Task: structure prediction
Amino acid sequence: MLFAGLSLALQYIVREQGGSDGQVGFTIGLIFALSGVGGTLGALTASWWMRKVSLPAVVIGCNVAWALLMPQVAYVRDTMALGALFAGMGYAGALWNVVAAVYQQKVTPDEMQGRLLSVATLVAYGTVPLGALAGGLLLDHFGATWTVLGLGGAMCLLALTAVVSPSVRRLNLS
Result:
């Protein structure tokens, strides 16, 4: 939900800066492309991370990275800097997804894999329209800066929850 709102806020921010429709579209596309590059690098380096650090460290680290990067979108207006922020969030997102998928495969019995994946997909992607709806309403009411700061605050709460959660600290890939 948070990232759907953040993606919408990015588009709002770039449009606020002005320029022709083509220029705005190019800028948004460039930032999302840089996010994709970050995501690709995150996925490609996930096995290295899994060998070097514990599963709890990856989970907590990704949440903390998002909590640090997300609020900066409220103030950064340079295209390449926004691209770097989104690349960092994309990196953490892909790393998170690969590590979570490996964990799911290891701990879920074979006969439950399909059911688990369908529920996980529903929870993960079923909330995207709600995040876009909430993000649109927040942007309309509060503007980009306060909306992004609110999303960043929510991410900080999620990161704090991951840090203090005994369940997260007990995760183990072996």
The radius of gyration is 17 Å. Residues 53 and 61 are 10 Å apart (CA to CA).
